[in-house]
Design a protein that fits this description.
By secondary structure, the chain is an alpha+beta fold. It is built from 24 helices and 43 strands. The strands form 12 sheets. Strands 1, 2, 5, 6, 9, 10 and 19 form a 7-stranded mixed β-sheet that branches. The chain has a 5-stranded parallel β-sheet with strand order 11-18-12-13-14. Strands 20-27-22-25 form a 4-stranded antiparallel β-sheet.
Length: about 850
């Protein structure tokens, strides 16, 4: 049995760096690698992959060199330098267990819960022992070490496909050589760096002739590096890759994949699936070493001190297993942990100067470590992170002192960042006409979540009610936080749920009234067409529509008849809670939607305690009962009209009304084809009309022309490099002058309502043309005039053009004002569908 000062398990970037530094310091060490080569994670990168060296501003401390470059070059450099440093490497040395051989540590019994595939669990106790540690290898050999550095990463424990067919042989979790595949329809599942790089590699050579589609469950690529996202979008723009965002896998069959998209179910040909959905720490092995995790969440990381020491004394954790996946971070950690083991306890992390600059100017004179712990312990959404995770998190966030009265942001200002209150209090100005009417938000919680979730402009002015310290978290950092720290996702969901309920139900409710209701609340993603309530079934859950929209239908004469449209911010299901009756109608998603499911029993207890809320819900119930009775009474004498309007409702949902906030509709019974609507739009927007009257679809006499729907979650906003697309104070989605003409919005819009065009010079007054010949004459095309008026017009770059609802102009949209017969109307979908159905009897 051989004894060492340090045993390093895993030869990834962190482990290699630690071993090389131990060799340089002359420390007795061994580097244990279970494979036959170094750095298995990078070795398994696809051939030719470009390895990034981010963050660029971070100094590299490792004795091994590392620069951005191809996988093969990086591995070659490390192999050469490891050999030159005389690192003691043991290959084919897989560690089976690590156990302390010293005396038992008093009061240090650890409970380990093992969850089995059948849903049951098994609990066992582990008594921790002091070092030295015995490392037992799978071949039976034993090694003794005073200290252990775990640098095993997480790639050996990938997240698996759980949908039907997820275990079929054409589903794989790694891509070694993308050039091996040709003439295949390949779906890459996952929008992180690994998924993006795999997708790009599969279509890098046009001769491969692969049809590559990348599937991402969200609209954003929050966990991927910016350079990778830009390369992915460039590949999409050139037609080499198809992107499917806000999409999940429903079923896998030989030769096919079925996906749930925002607009419904899609079944497509598929020869191969490469699933790159991240990985989780190898919890069983790590807990068996006596190391506790931060929580019971599958994605939780081990509890670590600021010097990387775990709850097992003398066992240190570095690299991806510590929550730091970036290579440069890992290499610095490997260097630093050996310094700590060697007695250098005063060494500051390499990112210390960057973080010191962020905390400059704050009161209190705290160190970086103290500030990180202060913020982590004071802001609820940050409490689940380790000190190491906090360091990485703060590199992408900022912290600032606001004095009492300072404005944090103003109503209608653009912004999608999230704020955490570490100290003090902020005030929300709830009445735009009277800033003195405010609602306080106290330390520990967050604000700004509406902009984060919906992308809408700020809904209220918020100012500091006292001196306060706020953490501002960028949208990408917040999304990354929610995806990587389960406790943060739960807390953000809890807070947004609470505020949604207070906003929707009002009735004098306070947060304390909702504790039991929210405790059992669940956020669920509903695919387009899926029912959350089915007519005739039992059930008493209430559903809050968080995003998307629903349609309500009732079976009349064996046919589903449209009743109403339910937009985001509404609720359904209250009737069963109040009277205990079976569901009276079916409620299904018009588009992919998120709902908050509230259990009936705690909500019933809330109604008993709050009579005013019960009265409100009874009023809603009465309205819906009247609508049901109306439909029932007309099922014979009025059935043809009901059928027609049910058809119209379904048609409008198919045309995107389900995710719209404002729609232009034309009644073809009234339209005379004068095109005044298009002309008025052009005259209002420098000669460039934002609508095409003749284009679009028609059902019965109702026409939906090509014009912006101002979607609740605009597709066009998803990827705008200069952030030039905004939502105005009255809901309009518009493009400002910072547009660079990249065309991403045009490609992302599923309704074809955005086009790229050159913006002509401003037209002079008509009187100027009449008296002096300035400007385009009657009937003269604007582009023809622009070429004469501006010699440089032909060289101008195109910009994105779309409807802005004539924002800022008196009287509302020009297309509606110019219609001589009243055929053109702009309405919200719930207004049209409900009013059209109920108002038909009088026509």
């Amino acid at each position: 049995m051989t004894a060492y000062r340090i045993a390093i398990v895993g030869s990834g970037p962190a482990g290699l760096s630690a071993a090389a530094h131990a060799a340089r310091l002359g420390l007795s060490h061994v580097l244990l690698e279970k494979t036959y080569h170094l750095s298995d994670t990078i070795y398994k990168y696809q051939k030719g992959k470009h390895v990034m060296a981010t963050p660029s501003q971070l100094v590299l401390r490792s004795p091994l060199d590392f620069e951005a470059g191809k996988r093969e070059v990086v591995l070659g450099t490390w192999n050469d330098q490891t050999a030159a440093a005389q690192v003691n490497v043991r290959y084919h040395a897989e560690v089976k267990s690590i156990a302390g051989t010293g005396p038992a540590i008093e009061g240090s019994v650890m409970k380990i819960v093992t969850r089995k595939r059948d849903g049951t669990s098994e609990t066992r106790e582990l008594q921790r022992h002091a070092p030295p540690y015995r490392l037992t290898l799978t071949n039976g050999e034993e090694i003794i070490a005073e200290t252990v550095i775990l640098a095993i990463g997480t790639q050996g424990n990938p997240n698996l496909m759980t949908c039907p067919g997820g275990n079929l042989p054409h589903v794989q979790y790694q891509l070694d050589d993308p050039t091996e595949y040709t003439d295949e329809h390949i779906f890459v599942i996952g929008g992180g760096d690994a998924g993006i790089e795999n997708a790009l590699g599969l279509c890098a050579d046009p001769a491969q002739n692969n049809m590559v589609t990348l599937v991402n469950r969200s609209a954003d690529f929050a966990t991927a590096k910016d350079a990778n996202v830009k390369a992915l979008l460039a590949a999409r723009d050139s037609g080499r890759i198809s992107l499917m965002t806000e999409t999940t896998t429903r079923q896998i069959e030989p030769g096919y994949i079925t996906l749930d998209t925002r607009d419904g179910e899609v079944r497509a040909r598929c020869d191969r699936i490469i699933a790159r959905m991240g990985s989780a720490p190898p919890r069983g092995f790590v807990e068996g070493c006596g190391i506790e995790f931060a929580s019971n969440d599958r994605l939780a990381f081990p509890k670590l001190s600021a010097t990387f020491e775990s709850t097992a004394p003398g066992i240190y954790v570095v690299g991806a297993l510590a929550g730091y996946p970036l290579i440069k971070h890992c290499m610095n950690q490997g260097h630093d942990v050996v310094e700590v083991i060697n007695g250098n306890l005063d060494l500051k992390p390499a990112d210390e100067p960057i973080l010191e600059a962020k905390f400059t100017g704050l009161p209190g004179g705290r160190s970086v470590a103290d500030w990180l712990e202060y913020l982590r312990s004071r802001v609820s959404i940050l409490s689940g992170m380790s000190s190491l995770q906090m360091r990485e998190f703060m590199l992408d966030s900022s912290v600032k002192l606001y004095r009492a009265g300072d404005v944090v942001f103003e109503r209608n200002a653009p912004g999608s960042s999230l704020f955490g209150i570490a100290d003090g209090q902020v005030l929300v100005e709830v009445n735009p006409s009277d800033p003195s009417i405010t609602v306080p938000i106290n330390a520990g919680t967050i604000f700004g979540e509406v902009g984060l979730i919906s992308g809408r402009r700020r809904g209220a002015t918020i100012r500091a009610g006292s001196d306060c310290i706020l953490v501002e978290i960028s949208r990408n950092a917040a999304l990354k936080l929610m995806s990587q720290v389960p406790s943060a996702a739960r807390e953000i969901t809890r807070i947004t749920t609470e505020r949604s309920l207070l906003q929707i139900f009002k009735s004098g409710l306070a947060p304390a009234d909702l504790v039991d209701v929210i405790a059992g609340a669940k956020v669920e993603s509903i695919r387009a067409g899926q029912a959350i309530i089915k007519e005739g079934e039992a059930g008493d859950d209430i559903f809050i529509i968080r995003s998307g929209s629903m349609v309500v239908e009732k079976s009349i004469g064996g046919k589903p008849v449209f009743l109403s449209y339910v937009p985001a911010g509404s609720f359904v299901g209250e009737m069963a809670v109040i009277d205990g009756s079976p569901r009276s109608a079916t409620v299904r998603a018009a588009v992919k939607s998120d709902v908050i499911r509230l259990a009936g029993e705690p909500f019933r207890a809330l109604l008993a305690a709050k009579p005013q809320l019960l009265d409100k819900l009874r009023g809603e119930m009465a309205n819906r009962t009247r609508l049901n009775n109306y439909i029932e009474s007309k099922k014979d004498s009025f059935s043809s009209v009901v059928d027609m309007y049910t058809g119209v409702a379904n048609f409008l949902v198919d045309q995107g009304v389900g995710e719209a906030t404002d729609v232009l509709l034309i009644d073809e019974k009234l339209c005379v084809g004068c095109d005044n609507c298009e002309k008025a739009c052009a005259d209002t927007h420098d000669g460039l009309s934002r609508l095409d009257r003749e284009a679009g679809r028609t059902y019965a006499h109702l026409h939906v022309p090509t014009s912006c729907r101002h979607c609740e979650h605009p597709h066009c906003m998803a990827d705008c490099p200069p952030n030039a697309i905004h939502r105005g104070p009255t809901g309009e989605v518009y493009i400002d002058d910072t547009c660079i003409g990249c065309g991403n919005c045009q490609r992302n819009c599923p309704y074809g309502v955005i086009r790229m065009d050159k913006v002509p010079p401003k037209k002079p007054w008509l009187l100027s043309w009449f008296l002096f010949g300035s400007g385009p004459g009657p009937g003269e095309p604007s582009h023809k005039w622009a070429k004469k008026a501006d010699p440089a017009y032909a060289e101008k770059a195109k910009k994105a053009i779309k409807c802005d609802m004539c924002s800022g102009q008196e009287g509302g949209p020009a297309c509606v004002r110019a219609c001589p017969t009243g055929a053109a109307i702009r309405v919200s979908p719930e207004q049209f569908l409900s009013v059209a159905l109920m108002g038909r009897e009088g026509k």
